[in-house]
Amino acid sequence: MSFDKVVEFMNKAVGDGDILNLTRSYTKDVNGVLTLLGGGVCAYISDLVLENFTVTPLAGNTSGIDSLFLKVANSSITFALGCVYRPSSSLLKDDITLFNQICNISNSYDKVYIFGDLNLPNVDWPISGSRPYSSSSQLLVDLLLNSHLDQLITQPTRFRSNQKPSVVDLVITSDDSSISNLEYLNPIENKDTKTLFKYIRITLSGPVKTVKVKDAAGMVNENSYTVADIFADSFAKVFTVEPLFGMPNLSSVCNSNSITDIKFSADAVSEKLRKLKVIKSPDDIKLYSSSANYRDLERDLRAIYDWTHDWLLPLNLDKCKVLHLGNNNPKHVYFVDNLLLSCTDSHVDLGVVVTSNLSWTEHVQRVASKANKMLFLLTKTFSKASPLVFSKLFKTYVRPLLEFANGVWSPILQKDILCLESIQRRATRFPFGINRPPYCERLRLMHLCPLSDRRKRGDLIITYQALSNSFSPMRHLFPLNTSDRTRGHPLKLPMICDYTFLSTEAWI
Asked: Which Gene3D superfamilies does this entry report, sorted A to Z (predicted)?
């Protein structure tokens, strides 16, 4: 049995079975008729409860207050049910009319059960006779005392921000012995009733059933295969039969049954190939050498040019660049087909920006810009994501941009480290809003860790893979300590004692 304030659109065409299955519904607004824009109260009673009972609405009009009173009777028992919603802006004269009607009903029936929201939060339950109340609250207290009615709700039912929890939803009865074991559940939502309505819709919605469809003979079918055929025939009507007179005619008909009779004309194939517009150039060829061996590099350039010329794959000289590494580099000039190759201070190779001074600042700025753009799109698309959901989005779309090819590059300057970490710091702020916890706590709640820790973890993984695999192409980059003075496992790296590495951050 349920009593509710009606807040959905209703009209007279809505039947009892359309609202809830296996129930009878009784609705009434403030004027005693159904309204279009919500309003009123309604009662849903299971058919199992009403199997041997007759329900009759009781006459009465409480202007300004939504109320519904029902007489429920069978051969052995008769009682009254009531559902009331009193708005907080109700007038005193309307309150007097309502309480007089409740008093008359309690005098006419031995058992009375009234449920509703009376919006009188200043009444203390159980009733304390020493405290003064407002006019409407005092009317309710006098009604309960004079009519020998009990109000059974004693714990707060309304929880709103910046307000003290209060009791506004009441259960009034003349027979408190028939109602026992009241259970107070946690509020579904503090202030928004949309969550409750969503829960009700999800609860009432079951699996999708096959719709009933009439066939060509007018018979109603609910068999899934028959219904599918009816829909398929209906959809097929939009396709028309096209005539064949517009089909091109073949110049000659081949009557051969053997595939060996197909003939190709070499001249025709050559003509077709000559008309193809294809950019024929190899991509991503790298040559490197010490500046002292620049003659070897020039010889390699001539060899590549000759090979591409012989195979009709000319080099795109606009994309050919020279990158001089080191501050003391003599910066030799190089030519291809008597054309000078242009020099550059930085170059993007497989997504990594390599500069002439081998600094990663420019690469850090590039990946930070891409990550910030992706983070902006996520914040606009998922404006109300929870911390765990946004953490998954960050791990999927943003963090890979910050960690791509981490084994090749790693920031050393503090400004670069802070630049990368600031993106993750900004991402953790979004799901918490203004009142957010500290950064370390946000990382814990979102199951994240600092990016510097992940870079160290990645370096350790690469080192382990290089040392544990004898055929690793990186094995020669990690010389082992062959001294007998150390104990433990044999996979130990020697300590480099050089002034050059004093200011370099440890990467392992």
From this structure: Endonuclease/exonuclease/phosphatase
